[in-house]
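hey so i finally got around to running the thing on that chain from the lab meeting. sorry it took forever, my laptop kept dying and i had to restart like 3 times. anyway pasting the input first so we r on the same page abt which one it is
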Amino acid sequence: SKQQFPKSLFIFKNLFIFLSMEAQLHAKPHAQGEWSTGFCDCFSDCRNCCITLCCPCITFGQVAEIVDRGSKSCCAAGALYMLIDLITSCGRMYACFYSGKMRAQYNIKGDGCTDCLKHFCCNLCALTQQYRELKHRGFDMSLGWAGNAEKQQNQGGVAMGAPAFQGGMTR
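ok and heres what got predicted. didnt touch it at all, straight out
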């Protein structure tokens, strides 16, 4: 038994590497209105895949903070996801709602039924796809919304939030 553990670990590691390379080889160029990566391309970002597998609330929180444009922190969104999932087992439904919000923000084709189907069939794949989409669109997920907005402003870009309105109410 002790001799087979390292061998099975070696096999798992090689399968993991193979699937990662396979996802990169078959990646399609990003088309307007489409997700930038495939639903089953989880292994194209192995680090995020492992984090999502162990604790999906972390990935959900990171995605929700960006999609909500900083109105909810990563910790608050992740904790709410975990609480909903622990109490009602409906965390996937909550995550499904964010798929719809994200599709609407970035004009990605799809519908609520497909979003729910994806989250109920493989929540891991759906959450990692959302995470990869935001990374593909230039977000550094470790910075959160405020960090990304600051980074973009420091690089001479326009802030990612709503446009600033100068002046008060007038008649």
